[in-house]
Every structure is written in structure tokens, then in C-alpha cells.
Specification:
- This protein is 31% helix and 29% strand.
- By secondary structure, the chain is an alpha+beta fold.
- The strands form two sheets. Strands 1-2-3-4-5 form a five-stranded antiparallel sheet, with helices on both faces. Strands 6-8-7 form a three-stranded antiparallel sheet, covered by helices on one side.
- Helix 1 packs across helix 2.
- The protein is globular and about 35 Å long.
Amino acid sequence: MPVYETMPFHLETERLILRPWAESDAAEFCALLSERGDGTPTVEHIRTAIAKLLTETAATGIALLPVQRRDEGDFIGYCGLITGRSTLEEPEIAYELFRRVHGRGYATEAARAVLDAAVATGRKRLWSTVGTWNTPSLRVLEKLGFERDHVSSEDSGEVVWLTRSLP
């Protein structure tokens, strides 16, 4: 098994900062997850989830990072690498932003920074999985050079699997 460099855990773009999780992110993370329409997790549950994310980051060398706007300083979502439905060798890129900031290019900007961070680890390919209904996320991935690999059926509906080879 190849040995990969640790992903940088602090990324900056023109408009965004991606950084490690802090306990103070719990309330905003709850609010973001509640936008899914599946109920609102408790802040305590999210604090536990953040601790788990930090433990996984230390063990795997890849991270899902909070995204905040540079000028406003507000938490707007997350973006990063996860094992998800894939593997540590070929992780998934994942992102989710508050609806109030959709349509401004933030997802593409954050994902591009994470893509560059993945290249720096020495990985050769990334995956992403997106519900077929999520046209905006599919557009983001296509802008970043991801190509459709296949579609699977899951309890939540059809999922598009996309891949991107890395230099």
C-alpha cells in the first residue's frame, strides 16, 4: 500500500478559509445539517461528531474541513476528503453549504482547494458520490474535471459515482 502525505488542514482561497473543526462550530454545523430536512441533531451529538472527525483526521491524514468566508468570518459549510463510500487510497471529495450561500461559486472554490490538497498527498484518483437530483453539485464536480463512472440505487435514491484522475 502506498504511503501518502498528510493533507494540509488549513487551506485558503481568495474568498474562503478551510480549517480544522472547533467545538464552537457545533451550533452552526447543527443548523447546516437541519437544512437537509431530516430533523435537527443536538449540539451535544454534533460535538461528539466533531470529536470523531478530528480522531479520523489524525488516523487517516485526510480531513473534512469547515468552510468560512474570509471577509465575513462566518461558517458556511464544509468541504474535504472522506473515505465515505470509497477508500483511503482513493477518497471521496465531499461538500455541503448553507442554502443561503448557494449559487456564488463557493462550493467550486472550496472543492478546488481540496482537490489541490489531495494532489499534494500523492493520491492518483478521487471519487465523489452525488444524488442524481443534485444538479448543482454535479455541475461543480464537472467544472473540476470529474467524470461520471456509474449510477447505483440506494435507499435514498439513485447516486452518481464520479471520478477524477490526479496529476
